[in-house]
Design goal:
- The longest helix has about 35 residues.
- By secondary structure, the protein is mainly alpha-helical.
- Helix 3 runs antiparallel to helix 19.
- The chain has a two-stranded antiparallel ribbon. The protein has a two-stranded antiparallel sheet with strand order 3-4.
C-alpha cells in the first residue's frame, strides 16, 4: 500500500461527499415537481411526452397501480429489446454485418438490461451492432435506472406522507428522472469522456498494420455516450468485452476517477433526497454514514489484500525481503495504468453500487478479495447501491433494525414517525429473502447438473466461487462476473435470467406494498419511548443488522468458496 493510493481513495470519498447535498437537493426538487434550473428549458418537452403517452400528470396512483405500471413498462421493455436483438441482422448501423443474436442469449440480455443488471454473456464488439448498442442497450440503461429511482421515491413518499392513498405517478416519476436528471448529467459526462480520448463514432472498425505486417481490425463505435449512462445508471454493461479495462472505455487514471464518481453520485445523493423529503436531512446523513462505514471496510480490505501480494508466489522466494518479493502487489489481471489502488477502488465501487462495471479481472483477485466482492453484493447492494435500489434496500434494513430494537425495549417500532407493523415487516422480509433464495438455490442447481458443471473454468473452491458469484451478481442486479465461467449456454442464459427476474421484480413489488402501507398512516409524534434513528447509536445498530443478516444468509457458502481457497493458498507458505 502507498500514500498515493490512499490519497486517491480519500479524494474519491471527499468528492462524493461534496456532491451529495447539492445533488440530493436537486433530486428532491425534481421529484416534488418544484422549479429547477432546467425546468424552463424542458417543461414543454415533458408536457409533450405526457400528451403523447396519454398520461395525466396530476393524477396519482396507489401502490398497486404504481406496481402494475412498473411491471407493464418492464414487460414491454423486455419484449422490445428481445425483438431488436433477434432482428439485428436486418436493421441498420451494422457495419460488421453481425447476425441475429441467439434466442437464449437475446432473452438473457433483454432481461439483464431491463432489470438494470447488465450481465453480459457476450462480447459487445463482436455480438451487437451499433444500432443494438444505441437503441437497445443504451436506451434500456436510461429507462431501467429511471424506473428504479421512481420506486425509491415512491417509498420515500410512503415515509413522508400522512394518511395518503397514493404514492405518486410512476409515469411522471419515470419521465422526470430521465429528462431532468439522467440526460443532462450524461451529456456533460459524455463530452468529458470524449475530451479524455474515448471514441464516439459511427465509423466501422479501423484497419491497422502491425509491426509484423499483419492486418488488425480495431473495434470502435459510439462508446462515450453508452459509457456515461452505463456508469451513472448502475447498469455497468460495457461496449467492449473488457468493459472499463479497455483503453477505449477507460484510458487514464483521470477517466478512472470520473467513472467511479459517476457510479456513486446518484446513489449517495438519494440519501440526502430522502432526508429532505421526510423533513430531516440528518436521517439522510445517517444512511450515508452507514454506507460509508461498510464501503470503507470493503475498500480497505481489498487494497490491503491485493497490495500484500500473492502468498503462493511469495513462498517461491522465502530468502528475499518481504518488500522485494512482490513490490507492486498482486498485479495479475489488473491494468498497469490503474495499479492496485485504482483497481481495488473500482472493484469495490462496482460491487457495492450494483453497477457491475469492471476495470480489472475479478477472477484474478486473491480469494479473500473475491469474498469481499461477493459480500458487497450479498448484503443486497445497500452500500450506496444502484440509484434507487440502494436506497430502498437500505430503508428495508432500517425497518428490520427498528423492529429488532422495538422487540428489545418492548415498544412499538417506529421509523421517521411511521409505525412498523406486521404488514411492513412481512413485506420487508419477503423482499430481503429473494436475493439469497435465488442466488443460493440456483447456484446449488448449477453445481449438481451437467450443463452447469460444463461451464466451469476451474475446479475446486475457485470453480464454486465462479458459479456463486454469477448467481449472486444476477440476483443482486449487479452484472459483474469472475469471468472464468463460460456462461453463454442455454442453461446459464436462462437460469441467470431467472435470477435477475427474481432479484428485480420480487423485491420491488413488496417495496411498493410497504410504501403504500406507510403512506396511509399518520405521522406519530416522537416521545420519550421513541428510538432515536438520527443518532450514532442507530448507525451501529444498522451496520450490525446488515452484517448479521448477510452473515447468517451467506457465511456458510462463503466458507465453501473464497475462505477455504484462501486457507489453501496460505497453507502453501507453511511447506
Amino acid at each position: 500500500m502507498t500514500t498515493t493510493g490512499w490519497l486517491e481513495i480519500l479524494l474519491f470519498v471527499a468528492v462524493v461527499g461534496s456532491l451529495t447535498r447539492p445533488l440530493g437537493g436537486y433530486l428532491q426538487r425534481v421529484y416534488s415537481g418544484e422549479r429547477t434550473l432546467l425546468r424552463p428549458l424542458l417543461a414543454s418537452i415533458e408536457s409533450a411526452l405526457y400528451r403523447l403517452a396519454g398520461v395525466k400528470p396530476d393524477v396519482e396512483q396507489d401502490w398497486l397501480q404504481y406496481a402494475i405500471s412498473f411491471l407493464i413498462f418492464h414487460a414491454l421493455g423486455i419484449v422490445a429489446l428481445y425483438g431488436l436483438l433477434r432482428a439485428q441482422s436486418a436493421l441498420p448501423l451494422n457495419p460488421l454485418n453481425l447476425p441475429a443474436v441467439a434466442p437464449d442469449l437475446a432473452l438473457n440480455t433483454a432481461v439483464s438490461f431491463t432489470t438494470n443488471t447488465s450481465w453480459q454473456s457476450y462480447a459487445g464488439e463482436t455480438t451487437l451492432s451499433y444500432f443494438s448498442q444505441m437503441t437497445g442497450i443504451t436506451v434500456q440503461s436510461f429507462l431501467s435506472v429511471a424506473a428504479g429511482m421512481a420506486v425509491a421515491v415512491a417509498l420515500i413518499r410512503g415515509f413522508a406522507r400522512r394518511r395518503s392513498a397514493t404514492v405518486g405517478n410512476f409515469w411522471v416519476d419515470l419521465t422526470r428522472g430521465t429528462l431532468y436528471v439522467l440526460l443532462p448529467i450524461c451529456i456533460v459526462a459524455a463530452l468529458l469522456l470524449i475530451a479524455a480520448g474515448i471514441p464516439q463514432t459511427l465509423s466501422p472498425a479501423a484497419a491497422a498494420t502491425t509491426l509484423e505486417g499483419a492486418l488488425q481490425m480495431i473495434a470502435r463505435g459510439p462508446v462515450a455516450s453508452q459509457e456515461a449512462i452505463k456508469l451513472l445508471s448502475g447498469d455497468g454493461g460495457g461496449f467492449f468485452n473488457a468493459n472499463s479495462a479497455h483503453p477505449f472505455e477507460n484510458p487514464t487514471s483521470l477517466t478512472n476517477l470520473i467513472e467511479v464518481l459517476l457510479i456513486f453520485a446518484l446513489g449517495a445523493a438519494l440519501t440526502n433526497c430522502f432526508g429532505r423529503m421526510v423533513g430531516s436531512e440528518r436521517h439522510g446523513w445517517i444512511l450515508l454514514c452507514v454506507m460509508a462505514i461498510l464501503f470503507g471496510l470493503g475498500v480497505g480490505g481489498l487494497y490491503a489484500v491485493e497490495a500484500g501480494g500473492n502468498p503462493a508466489l511469495a513462498a517461491l522466494h522465502p530468502d528475499r525481503p518481504a518488500d522485494l518479493r512482490q513490490p507492486a502487489g498482486n498485479m495479475e489481471g489488473k491494468e498497469v495504468r490503474f495499479g492496485i489502488a485504482g483497481s481495488a477502488l473500482f472493484a469495490e465501487v462496482s460491487t457495492a453500487s450494483s453497477d457491475g462495471a469492471v476495470n480489472s479481472m475479478h477472477d484474478s483477485f486473491l480469494p479473500l478479495s473475491g469474498g469481499i466482492l461477493l459480500a458487497n453484493m450479498m448484503v443486497d447492494e445497500v452500500i450506496v447501491g444502484a440509484p434507487g435500489s440502494g436506497l430502498y434496500g437500505m430503508l428495508l434494513f432500517c425497518i428490520v433494525a427498528v423492529f429488532i430494537a422495538g422487540l428489545m425495549i418492548g415498544r412499538t417500532p417506529e421509523y421517521v414517525g411511521k409505525k412498523i407493523g406486521s404488514t411492513e415487516i412481512k413485506m420487508t422480509i419477503l423482499a430481503l429473502i429473494c436475493v439469497p433464495a435465488a442466488a443460493l438455490g440456483l447456484a446449488a442447481v448449477a453445481c449438481i447438473l451437467e450443463p452447469g458443471l460444463a461451464g466451469l473454468g476451474n475446479a475446486g473452491p475457485h470453480g464454486f466461487s465462479e458459479v456463486l458469484y454469477a448467481y449472486t451478481s444476477a440476483a443482486a442486479t449487479n452484472g459483474s462476473a469472475f469471468a472464468g465461467l463460460n456462461s453463454n449456454s442455454p442453461f446459464y442464459n436462462l437460469t441467470l435470467a431467472l435470477a435477475m427476474f427474481v432479484g428485480r421484480f420480487l423485491v420491488i413489488v413488496p417495496v411498493l406494498a410497504v410504501a403504500g402501507s406507510l403512506a396511509a398512516q399518520p405521522i406519530t409524534p416522537r416521545s420519550s419511548g421513541t428510538l432515536p434513528t438520527d443518532r450514532a447509536l442507530f448507525v451501529f445498530l444498522l451496520v450490525g443488522v446488515i452484517v448479521i443478516v448477510g452473515g447468517l444468509s451467506f457465511l456458510p457458502v462463503l466458507a465453501l468458496g473464497p475462505l477455504i481457497e484462501q486457507l489453501q493458498l496460505l497453507s502453501l507458505t507453511l511447506y
